[in-house]
Give the backbone structure.
Amino acid sequence: MNGPTALNEVSPARATTHFNRPARLLHWGMALAIFTMLFIGIGMVASLSLRPILVSLHRPLGIAILLLVNVRLFNRLWRRPPSLPADLPSAQILAAKASHWLLYVLMFAMPLIGWSMVSASGFPVVMFGGFALPPIAPHDATVYAVLRAAHTWLALLLFVTVLMHLAAALFHAWVRRDGVFAGMARGPRVGGQSARGGMDESGEPPPPM
Ligand code: HEM
């Protein structure tokens, strides 16, 4: 355990260069799940014929995202993440930190709002095979209307934030080539040295070349 850390602290000394394996698995698995959810959500409201099957996928996948983001936040706060490159402009550091926090907020908010919204509609929050979650909001038309609008607008915000996150990741990978993308894309190479020159997952600094 390393103790809690702020998201993306910039501390070049004794920094790790790669996210740990659980963080990488959760990142790519949840990226796929969230992208899928956004398109399932749009499909649900756009196609009457596909709606039943898409709704039956949307609810359990959304609740799976809610469960996984708890694990992910725990891992994120207790295992030291790689530090950002020391030469990254402060505006980009701020944008990275703010967008990462926003993504965490939305990963919690979207499933919780979806669950509350179905609760407020008065219908059971069915997951699969007749198993239903308990309602977490009162059966109320006004509450439903507010949550329904919030689910749409926050989905749009999530989509835009994910696209900006993707653009920033590719900027690091293809333009700056500073090792930030590699820190999430793969584990540390034994005997290799990162573009950021920090330690690998084991906590050891890279060996001299
Ligand atoms: C990360 C999680 C989630 C994402 C990204 C997401 C995304 C979306 C999107 C993009 C839409 C279409 C919105 C529109 O066009 O107005 C939608 C609709 C919907 N979502 Fe979610 N959702 C999530 C979680 C959930 C959960 C957990 C539930 C319920 C347990 C849920 C229930 C619904 C329902 C019922 C609709 C359609 C409402 C209607 O047709 O009137 N969502 N969702």
